[in-house]
Each structure stands twice: as structure tokens, then as C-alpha cells.
Design goal:
The complex is a heterodimer of chains A (533) and B (307). Chain A is α/β, with parallel strands linked by helices. Chain A has helices spanning 51-58, 84-90, 112-124, 128-141, 147-150, 160-172, 190-207, 218-224, 242-247, 252-259, 326-333, 355-362, 382-393, 399-412, 429-441, 459-476, 487-493, 511-516, 521-530, and strands at 7-20, 23-36, 40-44, 66-74, 77-78, 95-98, 178-182, 210-215, 227-232, 235-241, 275-288, 298-311, 315-319, 340-345, 348-349, 365-368, 447-451, 479-484, 496-501, 504-510. In chain A, helix 16 links the parallel strand 17 (447-451) and strand 18. Chain B has 307 residues and is mainly α. Classes of the chains: A alpha/beta (533), B mainly alpha (307).
């Protein structure tokens, strides 16, 4: 049915390359792609697949060292090599874009009203004053509350979701033919993600423009795209209708990508399993405002009376959107930040333990962070990073014994022990996260708190890390607290789920119960936002 | 806004007090004194002089006297220019320095921002290389070299412009000293602008502006330049204070009757009151221009607006 539609953007043998000090890098290696009027085409791929650079190349937005060759015809007009002046009649008028980073894509120095008006004024003429009515209309259309007041707001006064709505308003301003959405929801919370995608969907139905959706998220693709192009390493490996791609994938890579969706379940431990870590009535306050001569600093309660009980071999998944207090709760349970409440580790009451009293226990309570780039020191070798904790907790070890432990730990996380002598920047994101995990398990901990350990990774790598974490848990009898905003990962990892919002527990229960029959409306919203397919 | 300005002006009082106190004692701890000449004065004359100027009193006493007089605007007599008070000297010279300095500041700011922007837009081109080389020269070559070279070329060889003196105060007389004074600051402005402009051109919102087909002029001037001006504006305060309070070297080379030489002459001759006077003057300029910069910053960037 889609095939009967007119092709409005025809990409043929498009190549994008970047000249770098190490030579020319081919980001896009001669791809063909068609966008048909009114359709939603999803371009799917993992980071580095060239999906964004294809669009940047067509739109003349490559970085200074990038070149684009080949052909991209918009309704017969060649865009590649088009002089800037002519290209600027297409950009922002016929083809518009929204970007991944709603926080930085708007100019912080101008009001949103003025920024939405700019493309109108430049393409349609008139004054900013005249464009104001249209801008108010657009703000209304994209669901910004109180447009009359908001029109004079600056970007920093809006939330991430609202900024993305402003970008969409800008994209719609001149009734475009094609809207390119480059990972439009990746930086947003799940419930906001769903709202933005619904908005895009309804606007498309209303105005009939074609949408090119660039994404790594297959859930979004399945729900919103009519056709899919799968990209890998600068090439299109498969194109087809969405249902065909999902039900009868042809290319091996597509199959791999589909299989990379987190799967499997974790069996809960026996009810009699001993409790290893317990926090009762945990509360954490942050001081807000007030500078050096602080006048009346306010207090923000990040975690508000949360109780949690972790049994041996159990994985508790903590779900919540940004600002829900889930990471703060994890740090409070490890007694890393000042907090009130009662805490037990095994049989020991650690509620009043000082920093130095906690130190001997630290080896059994480990933490793995989200960002595998920021959390490893770039100036230490992997061997040094992994064995650092041993100097503190097992100082009696000889150099050879430490090295042996490092080899064991690296093998356990599936890395070549030769990695010991290399530096973090030589490894990929997934490998770095393995290094971070090795650093935690080398101390043979009892409890590991995993704070969004897979959020910075591509789907196929995520799956591998999840498999690894599950295998390590089984082999070493570990207990996990798994913090994530990603429900499909939580579902695959945990046997018990805690849903948090505004520092409180909204709902908790066994994974099956939470996912199959959520009771609270907030949990239901989360679920429907995440599993829209 | 008004309360912000008032608060800042109020906080200037302790700052000035600290500056005055530190300079007062630093100056007194330096060896020598205002009447130590190459040929020593007879002891009796020396003692009389010291008594006349109350320099024989305990240091604390002198300090308290100085402070209480300074509060009423009395900065004492100069020890070198014996017929003048410090206030008179500064009052006479300051208009010359301010006029010359404002021209130099305008030249440095406009020239520096233009040069820096051009360099950033043509990053790594010949033009960029040329502008950056010239600005390196501007920063590194001292103005006691630039001044005489300018005089030699434009006054002596080409005879286009007068070699020095204030003359009738017309632009003809001021061009050479203005250029000599502005050049180092112009170079700093150019480098700052280039750096922040390159950074600004790589931000996401510039990509947005391009993606929406805005013409290059709008992308560069409306969006990139405004962001790029923020670091430039911060440098405006020290640059303005330095230029408007005169330069000893430039004023001496071009025989301009400004206040720039008083700081150096006063320091060399241990003319305590004159040095203190110039210190207070510079401090006031720095404080006022910092305030002006903060207000400008708030106008440019809504995120730091003052209430």
C-alpha cells in the first residue's frame, strides 16, 4: 500500500566521509533510500551505523571535516552540492529537523517565541510581530500549556519534554513536506517519550508530512514506523515494511538486533533466603539555594521514607524517571551519603556506623555506575583500575597474587586478561562496563548496586552485559539492586520491582505481578509508555 | 536591578578599604623614602621635611590620618610635585587619559572582535593564520617599541601625523598614541573572540539555525556572535580599567599630559600619597567596570539575569 505513494526524497549511492588525522573515515558507504509522501520511515541502527550522518549529509549539516557525495533528490531537486542559498530554501521550509538534545538544540539567549518565529520570518517574510499569532497557534498545537505566557520564556525555563515540543513547533512552522526526527526521545524520560511520539504521530496524521525517524529503539520503530531501513556500519542491510522486518527479518544483522531485545526471567530466591541488606524508613535531604552567606536555604527531600529488604541471591529492580530518587536511594543504602533511617548489613546494625567503621564492609558492598567513560580513570591501566580495591581491602596480597586475581576477574567478565596493560580509551563502551564490573567483583562482594549499568550501551551490547551480570550472580551468589529507567532491562534482570516517584515508593512487588497487573495508575502509565507495541 | 547595583556598590567599600590598606603598608615597607636623593640632604633639613609631612609619626598614626583624610576626599599633597595636591594632579591629567583611553578601548574592541570573528569563520585558513600572527605580535611586542616605530614611520618618514603632544586634542594628534595603546588589547580581544566564536559555531543550536535555513549572516551575527561575546565582555572590565587610567609608556613617548606616568613616577620616587592616589583611582575604575560588565552580562545572557 505504501508503495503506491510518490517518492519525495530519493537517496542514491550516498557517501559521507570524514577526514581525520588517521586518514579518511567512511561513515556512510553509498546507500540508497526512498522517502515516500506521508509515510513514516524509521532508520534504525546502533551508534556508529551512519544513520544520523546520512541525514546530516543530505541537509548540509556535516562537521567541517565531512564531505558528502552521491545523490539525494527532493522532488527532483538535487540537494547534494546545492549552493547554500538554494539549499536554505529547502531547509526549514520543505524539510525540517528535530534533534536528540532538546536541552542544547535551542539558543539559550533568545525566547522560544522568537526562535520559532525565525524560520517563519525568513522563509515567509513579514516581521517577528506578525509571526507571533502563528507562533501562539503552533505552541497550542504542540501542547505547551499557557502559550501566551510561555512564548516569552527562555529555553532554560522549560523542561526537556517542553523543549522538544518547542522544537516540533519550529519544525511545523512552515508546513514541511518531510520532518526528520533524529533520536527525538532518547534524552527524555519514558512517559515523556511516549507523549512526544504520540504528538508526532497525531501531527503527522493531521498535516500529512513524511517523517524520517532516526532511532536505535526498536520499540519505537515497531509502534510508529510504516517502513524500516536497518543500517549497519554505513550500509543499509535491509529495507522493508515494519511488520515484515519484525516478523520475517532477512538480514542476519536484523535478526541479531531483534534478538538483542532483553529477554528471559530471573527466578526469585527462596522466601527463607537470609536478608543481606536492609534499609528501613530511608530519607535523604538536600539543601537547596543559599550561597556563601546563605539566606534561608530550602530543603529538598530526595528520598522520603523508603524501606527496602534485599535477600541473598535476589535482584531488586528500582524503576523511576529522572528525579525520582532511585540513584540517591542506592547511595544511601551503601551509606555513601548522609541519610536518616535504620540500616542492617547481614546481622550487623550499621545505622550509626561512621565512615571509618563502614570501610571494612565496603568490599562486600560494591557499586557500578552508568557512564563507563566517566567512571574509569583515563590515566590508569585496566590492571591498576581493577586491582585498586585490593590495596585497601587485602593489603597483604603479593604482587603476583594481585595479578592472578586480576586475571581471574577479567576472565570472569569475558575480557582477555591481556587487557590488564591497556588503557580504558582503547575499549568500547561495553568492554569498559565489563572492566567496571570486574573492578567490583574482584573484591568478592555480597551486594552490588548497579546504577543504570546498561543505559549508555547499544541494545546488542546491553543484552551481553545483562547475560554477564546474571551469570556472575548465579556463580557467586550475589545480590543486586538494579537501578534503571529502562523497563525491559528491569524485567529481564530482577525478580522484585520497586517503582519510585518523587522520592517515594509508588508500588512494589514480584516482577511478574508488576509487569502483568500493575495496580497504581503511575505504574500503568510507565508500562504503557515503555511497551507500546 | 537597582538593588543589585546598590548591593554591589556597597560591597565596593570594604574592597577599596582593603586595597588602600595593603598598598599603604606595602609602599611603606619598600626601602627608601620620598626625600632620599642621590646626594643626601643635611640631617636637619631631612628632619624638618619629615615633620612637615608627618612622616616622623608612628606608622599606625599615619595610616589612620591617611584613611580619615581620604574618606573626605583629601588625598594629601604630592611629595614630588610640591605645589600640587594629589587630587589636583589626578584631576588635571585624568580627562586626557580618559579621552585617549576611550578611543583606544573602542578601537581595540571593534577591531579585535572583527578580526577574531573573521579568523573564526575562516578557521585554519591563511587569513586566520595572518590575524593570529599579527595578534601574537601585538601581545608580545611592548608598546615602548611599537610607539617609536609608529612615530618613525608615520610622523618622521611619511610625515602624515604629528609625532607627539596633545596638540589641540584633535584626532590627528591622538591616532598614533591611540594605536600604540590599543594594539595589545586589540590582540587579546581578537584571540578571545576567535576562541569563543569557534566554540559557539560548533554548538547544537547553531546546527539548529543552519538546519532551518537561516541565512549565514543571521546564524553568525544573531546566534553565534551573541554567545561568543560573553567571554569578551568579561575581559572588558580589566581592559577598560587599564586603558582609561593611562599608560606611563605611551603617555611619555607621545608627551600626553595624562595620569599614566604618575603611578610609575610616584612609585620610583616613593611619592607615597601620589601612588596611593593612583591606586585608589585604578581600584575605583576596576570596581565600576566590573559592575558594568556584570550588568552587560545579564543583558546578554538571560540565564544570569540579576533581580
Amino acid at each position: 500500500m505504501t508503495d503506491s505513494r510518490e517518492t519525495i526524497l530519493a537517496v542514491r549511492n550516498l557517501k559521507v566521509s570524514f577526514s581525520t588525522p588517521d586518514g579518511t573515515v567512511e561513515a556512510v558507504k553509498g546507500i540508497d533510500l526512498d522517502v515516500k509522501a506521508g509515510e513514516t520511515l524509521a532508520v534504525v541502527g546502533e551508534s556508529g551505523s551512519g544513520k544520523s550522518q546520512t541525514m546530516m549529509g543530505i541537509m548540509g549539516l556535516l562537521a567541517g571535516n565531512g564531505t558528502v557525495t552521491g545523490s539525494a533528490k527532493y522532488r527532483g531537486q538535487e540537494l547534494v552540492g546545492l549552493p547554500l542559498k538554494a539549499l536554505n530554501h529547502v531547509r526549514g521550509e520543505k524539510i525540517t529537523m528535530i534533534f536528540q538534545e532538546p536541552m542544547t538544540s535551542l539558543d539559550p539567549l533568545y525566547t522560544i517565541g522568537r526562535q520559532i518565529a525565525e524560520p517563519i520570518v525568513h522563509h515567509r517574510g513579514g516581521t517577528f510581530k506578525q509571526a507571533r499569532t502563528r507562533v501562539l497557534e503552533l505552541l497550542e498545537l504542540v501542547g505547551i500549556p499557557e502559550p501566551k505566557r510561555r512564548i516569552d520564556s527562555y529555553p532554560h525555563e522549560l523542561s526537556g519534554g517542553q523543549r522538544q515540543r518547542v522544537m516540533i513547533a519550529m519544525a511545523l512552522a512552515n508546513d514541511p513536506d518531510i520532518l526528520i526526527a533524529d533520536e527525538p526521545t532518547t534524552a527524555l524520560d519514558v512517559t515523556i517519550q511516549a507523549q512526544i511520539l504520540d504528538l508526532l504521530n497525531s501531527l503527522q496524521a493531521k498535516f500529512g508530512m513524511a517523517v524520517v525517524l532516526i532511532t536505535h529503539d526498536l520499540g519505537i520503530v515497531r509502534h510508529f514506523a510504516s517502513r524500516v531501513a536497518v543500517m549497519r556500519r554505513g550500509e543499509v542491510v535491509e529495507t522493508g515494511a515494519t511488520t515484515n522486518i519484525f516478523e520475517r527479518p532477512q538480514a542476519d544483522y536484523t535478526k541479531l538486533l531483534l534478538a538483542a531485545e532483553p529477554r528471559g526471567r530471573k527466578e526469585p530466591p527462596a522466601n527463607t533466603a537470609p536478608i543481606v541488606l536492609e534499609g528501613a524508613n530511608v530519607a535523604v535531604d538536600y539543601a537547596t539555594g543559599g550561597g556563601l552567606f546563605g539566606s534561608s536555604a530550602g530543603v529538598f527531600r530526595a528520598v522520603d521514607g523508603v524501606s527496602i529488604r534485599l535477600r541473598e541471591g535476589q535482584t531488586i529492580g528500582i524503576v523511576g524517571e529522572s528525579g525520582s530518587g532511585k540513584s540517591t536511594l542506592g547511595r544511601a543504602l551503601l551509606r555513601l551519603i548522609p541519610s536518616s533511617g535504620r540500616y542492617r548489613f547481614g546481622a550487623t546494625n550499621i545505622s550509626d556506623f561512621s565512615r571509618s567503621a563502614m570501610r571494612p564492609l565496603r568490599r562486600q558492598l560494591q557499586l557500578v555506575f552508568q557512564d563507563p567513560y566517566g567512571s574509569l580513570s583515563p590515566r590508569q591501566t585496566v590492571g591498576e583500575i581493577v586491582t585498586e580495591g585490593l590495596y585497601v581491602h587485602e593489603p597483604q596480597l603479593s604482587r603476583a597474587e594481585r595479578d592472578k586475581r586480576a586475571i581471574e576477574a577479567l576472565k570472569e567478565v569475558g575480557l582477555d586478561p591481556a587487557a590488564r596493560n591497556r588503557y580504558p580509551h582503547e575499549f568500547s563502551g561495553g568492554q569498559r562496563q565489563r572492566i567496571a564490573i570486574a573492578r567490583a567483583i574482584i573484591l568478592k562482594p555480597k551486594v552490588v548496586i548497579l546504577d543504570e549499568p546498561t543505559s549508555a550501551l547499544d541494545r546488542s551490547v546491553q543484552g551481553q552485559v545483562i547475560d554477564l551480570l546474571r551469570a556472575l550472580q548465579k556463580a557467586n551468589g550475589l545480590s543486586y539492586i538494579f537501578i534503571s529507567h529502562d523497563l525491559s532491562v528491569i524485567k529481564a534482570m530482577s525478580d522484585y520491582v520497586v517503582v519510585m516517584k518523587n522520592g517515594r515508593i509508588v508500588e512494589e512487588g514480584d516482577t511478574d505481578a508488576i509487569f502483568e497487573a500493575p495496580r497504581e495508575s503511575y505504574t500503568q502509565t510507565l508500562m504503557s509508555a515503555a511497551f507500546t507495541a | 536591578m537597582i538593588s543589585f547595583v546598590l548591593r554591589r556598590l556597597a560591597s565596593a567599600v570594604p574592597t577599596l578599604f582593603i586595597v588602600v590598606t595593603i598598598s599603604f603598608f606595602l609602599m611603606r615597607f619598600a626601602p627608601g623614602g620620598p626625600f632620599n636623593l642621590e646626594r643626601p640632604l643635611p640631617p636637619q633639613t631631612m628632619a624638618n621635611l619629615m615633620a612637615t609631612y608627618h612622616l616622623d609619626q608612628p606608622l599606625w598614626n599615619q595610616y589612620l590620618t591617611y584613611i580619615s583624610n581620604a574618606v573626605t576626599g583629601d588625598f594629601g599633597p604630592s611629595y614630588i610635585y610640591k605645589d600640587n595636591t594629589v587630587a589636583e594632579l589626578i584631576g588635571k591629567g585624568l580627562p586626557y587619559s580618559i579621552q585617549l583611553g576611550s578611543y583606544a578601548l573602542l578601537l581595540a574592541l571593534i577591531g579585535g572582535v572583527l578580526a577574531g570573528t573573521l579568523a573564526a569563520l575562516r578557521q585554519n585558513s591563511v587569513l586566520d593564520f595572518l590575524i593570529m600572527s599579527v595578534s601574537t605580535v601585538g601581545v608580545t611586542v611592548p608598546n615602548f617599541v611599537v610607539g617609536p616605530v609608529l612615530t618613525l614611520v608615520f610622523a618622521v618618514v611619511l610625515a602624515w601625523l604629528p609625532a607627539g603632544s596633545w596638540g589641540d586634542g584633535s584626532l590627528r594628534f591622538l591616532i598614533l598614541p591611540m594605536v600604540a595603546l590599543a594594539l595589545p588589547q586589540l590582540a587579546v580581544f581578537a584571540r578571545l573572540t576567535r576562541g569563543s566564536m569557534i566554540e559557539a559555531l560548533h554548538t547544537d543550536h547553531i546546527r539548529t539555525a543552519r538546519a532551518y535555513g537561516l541565512p549565514p549572516r543571521v546564524v553568525v551575527v544573531t546566534h553565534a556572535m551573541r554567545a561568543a561575546m560573553l567571554p569578551v565582555v568579561s575581559y572588558l572590565a580589566p581592559a577598560a580599567a587599564a586603558l582609561l587610567t593611562g599608560s606611563a609608556v605611551v603617555e611619555t613617548i607621545f608627551t600626553i599630559p595624562g595620569v599614566g606616568r604618575y603611578f610609575v613616577l610616584g612609585a620610583i620616587n616613593r611619592d607615597y600619597t601620589l601612588v596611593m592616589g593612583t591606586v585608589v583611582l585604578i581600584a575605583i575604575f576596576v570596581i565600576v567596570f566590573n559592575l558594568v560588565v556584570d550588568i552587560l552580562y545579564g543583558l546578554l545572557d538571560p540565564r544570569v539575569r540579576h533581580d
